[in-house]
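Pipeline run #58 for the internal structure catalog. This entry was flagged by the ingest filter as a single-chain record with no existing model, so it goes straight to prediction. Upstream metadata was stripped on purpose; only the residue string is passed forward. Reviewer on rotation: M.T. Logging verbosity set to normal.
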Amino acid sequence: MAELYIYRNLFLPLNVVPWPLLLVVLFFSIVIHEVAHGAMALKCGDDTALHMGRITLNPAAHIDPVGTILVPVLLVILPTRFVFGWAKPVPVNPYNFYDIRKGTILVGISGAASNFALAFILALFVRILNIAGAASGAGFTVVSLLAAGVTVNIILGLFNLVPIPPLDGSRVVSALLPYEAAQRYESVGPYGLLILFLLLGVVWQFIAAIGNIFYRLLFIGLPL
């Protein structure tokens, strides 16, 4: 009856999927996130990422030894429900944008938007498998992997929208603020990682609460 429980909570699929497969899902989701940044930058007028070969699904172009390998492996192996990682940031030159403010906002939210879109698509496949009666037995392995993908992408999307440098949300906030306010806000940048570390518990509780709502909405109507 385990297959009846993974739709109850955002983190339940993480307890079912073997960690090597979970790392594959995480890495694929991170690559999609970075490619989305580069593709949106190109659409807004900046071709830096294109010329540097970063608008590609080839994993080798995005690997960061620490963020893509070390940190995710440690988080998965350790007894924690925190799943996160990052790839090499896609190079972006906002001065090439047709509209700097609009381009900065669109590029900033594109990564998270790609994760939310991927979560929706994966949840749709889960629904299809449930309708087809293939979500139990041997099919549960596939369903749980897809559900884990939903979880990972919801977490990645929400985490990156947190308005603390160097996360994507900070770039969006900075672009929305008046010039002087944006300058003061950006001056926090050098201390962003420290602030994020100090507030990580609060940030994680926020992500867990909001993420669980999204997760339950995506799977509403499925057996709990």
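catalog note: The chain has one domain: 2-218.
catalog note: Residues 72 and 85 are 5 Å apart (CA to CA).
status: ready for reviewer M.T.
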